[in-house]
Write a structure and sequence with these properties.
This is M56 family metallopeptidase. The protein is mainly α. It folds into two domains: 1-82 and 274-301, no CATH class; 127-270, no CATH class. The protein is 67% helix and 6% strand. The chain contains eleven helices and five strands; from the N terminus they run ααααββββαααααβαα. The chain has helices at residues 2-21, 31-57, 65-73, 84-125, 159-164, 167-183, 185-198, 203-224, 230-243, 260-268, 276-298; strands at residues 127-128, 135-138, 145-148, 154-158, 253-254. It has a five-stranded mixed sheet, sandwiched between helices.
């Protein structure tokens, strides 16, 4: 009963924390730390929510979640009477866990298929540009710049982008897209998109996905700033915004984002970084959240 109560309390704390976290503004000052905290919240909530149900279901075995599930699967007799409430909790917990896993796998498969089709399409319609080696160019008048993540990653721009941006601005945009590829931001976004599908009516899930999408763009902006002027990147983003940039295809990461002005303000008027003590505290909180639910699952009581 202690494990079930602890997991239920952890799930509730994660849900409340995620709700409060969507309104936080310190995240713009440390997007990578904020992304790590969002990931920890998601993992902790998923394992705690399913674990609370399963812990109650296997309570008659008096062995904890993992050992209780093993005993249940092996057909062992429980130490106490296993009634209807325990059976319903087992069904609900296994169903919820299966839904989360299946939705995540389905989202991953769908994304991989979309990227494979797009890579095949690029081999037919994209061309190389001698002055920007390694970048695929699409003959399209609209402004577009995006990356195709994966083992065979590509950075793609349109001919309209080449006409729209100066050389320095183009360098800034390419650095931004390369950051997405290098840091595999597609893998960061995948579970949040899957959670949104699993909970389509949840405002918290919707806001969490939107928040992480913006933080990923800010993290890429930070990495791009190592190779270009922040003002050049901000100017390029404004040009994309005023030109009505073409959204990135499904499964890709593009320069165009719905909250361009938040990124531009951050680039032009940088705020002080978080203090070292606060950074360490956030890292400790992320690690604690990520490990707490697995630890509770492993408890033998």
């Amino acid at each position: 009963m202690i494990t079930a109560a602890a997991l239920a309390a952890l799930a509730a704390a994660c849900a409340i924390g995620a709700w409060r976290f969507t309104a936080a503004r310190w995240t713009f000052r440390a997007p990578r730390l904020a992304i790590a905290l969002w990931q920890s919240l998601g993992v902790a909530w998923g394992l705690a929510s399913t674990g609370a149900l399963l812990a109650f279901a296997v309570m008659p075995y008096d062995r904890g979640v993992i050992q209780g599930l093993v005993a249940f699967a092996a057909g062992e007799a429980p130490h106490e009477r296993w009634d209807l409430l325990h059976a319903l909790a087992m069904i609900a917990g296994l169903t919820m866990l299966a839904v989360l896993v299946v939705v995540l796998l389905a989202a991953g498969v769908q994304t991989l298929r979309a990227r494979r089709r797009h890579r095949m399409l690029l081999t037919l319609i994209a061309r190389e540009e001698p002055r920007i080696p390694g970048v695929r160019v699409l003959d399209h008048p609209g402004a577009a710049a995006y990356c195709v993540p994966g083992l065979r990653s590509h950075v793609v721009v349109s001919s309209g982008t080449l006409e729209l941006l100066s050389e320095d601005e183009l360098t800034a945009v390419l650095a931004h897209e390369s950051a997405h590829v290098r840091e595999r931001h597609d893998l960061v976004l995948l579970p949040f998109g899957a959670l949104r599908r699993a909970l389509p009516f949840s405002k918290v899930a919707r806001d969490a996905q939107s928040q992480v999408e913006l933080l990923v763009e800010m993290a890429a902006d930070d990495r791009a700033r190592r190779y270009c002027s922040p003002r050049r990147l901000a100017t390029a983003l404004l040009r994309f915004g005023t030109a009505g940039a073409v959204p990135a295809p499904q499964g890709m990461l593009g320069a165009a984002h719905s909250q361009v002005m938040a990124r531009v303000d951050r680039l032009i008027k940088p705020t002080p970084e978080l203090s070292r003590s606060r950074r360490y505290g956030l890292v400790a909180l992320s690690v604690t959240l990520a490990t707490s639910a697995p630890f509770l699952w492993a408890l033998p009581f």
